Amino acid sequence: MIKITRSEGIFEITLNNPKVNAIGADMSRQMGEALNEFQSDPDMHVAIIYGGEGKIFSAGWDLKAVAEEGLDENEDYGDGGFAGITERFDLTKPVIAAVNGTAVGAGVEIALACDMIVASETAQFFLPETSLGVMADVGGVQRLPRKIPVNFAMEMLFTGRAMTAAEGLHFGLFNYVVSKENVIAKARELASQIVDAAPLAVRAIKEVVAGTLHQHLPEAFHFIKEPGLYPTYAQMLTSEDHEEGPKAFAEKRKPNWKGR
């Protein structure tokens, strides 16, 4: 139900459940296991979650299975919550969503859980949960109002109104909007730029941004210096890479990052 490829520091997860990439418990657990592999592999520095070449990134929950088997609130969706990512708060490496087309419900919530989104010109985001008697509670209500204007997020959550690719770019939700044919190429280009950066610095940025984003500015400056609060940041400051960067710059060569 998913395909995994590894190439030059990029860990790629392609959703592969035709025709709409609906995600049930088995596929969710597979994605969780894949992201565990990504997190633990020192040679992998950035992940891409890609919807494939079809028209739909993901239709979210496998509603056909829910209708046939009933909704089990105690269902085991594996490590990281739904799709292995919506509740994976300890992931230290960046993840890019390559949204090839329409994302529906929890498909939107997968993209929202990523650090960056590259979307096709045909991409649309729907959160239709209220028409099904539920709400978007694996990231929609938690993340969307933090990423776009609250009133627009509320409209989408209340009514199921679709966000177009142009709107997503306008609100800063999408990093790039490109043709459908170029979505995965653009995501890989962005990923390659991250691979070229110092890995500890990248991980420290993710750690500190997650910890300080909703703090007042003086607190954000204060707590970054607290011993033990941001271990990756502290590790970066005393690492070999911290010395290698200025040295490589002075010697006019490409840095040899070691991640330590």
Provide tags for this entry.
260 residues, alpha/beta, 2-enoyl-CoA Hydratase, Chain A, domain 1, 2 domains, six-stranded mixed β-sheet, four-stranded mixed β-sheet, 11 helices
Superfamily (CATH H level) name of the largest domain: 2-enoyl-CoA Hydratase, Chain A, domain 1
| The CATH class of the largest domain | Alpha Beta
Shape: globular
Number of helices: 11
Helix/strand class: alpha/beta
Q: Quote the distance from N terminus to C terminus.
A: 35 Å
Q: Strand order within the widest sheet?
A: 1-2-3-5-7-10
Reported CATH architecture of the largest domain: Alpha-Beta Complex
Strand content: 15-25%
Uncertain regions spanning at least 5 consecutive residues: none
**Rounded average pLDDT:** 93
Helix content: 40-55%
Model description:
- The chain is of the alpha/beta class and 260 residues long.
- The chain has two domains: 194 residues, 2-enoyl-CoA Hydratase, Chain A, domain 1 (Alpha-Beta Complex); 52 residues.
- It contains eleven helices and ten strands.
- The protein has a six-stranded mixed β-sheet with strand order 1-2-3-5-7-10, sandwiched between helices. The chain has a four-stranded mixed β-sheet with strand order 4-6-8-9.
- Helix 4 runs antiparallel to helix 5.
- 38% of the residues are buried.
- The model has no long low-confidence stretch (mean pLDDT 93).
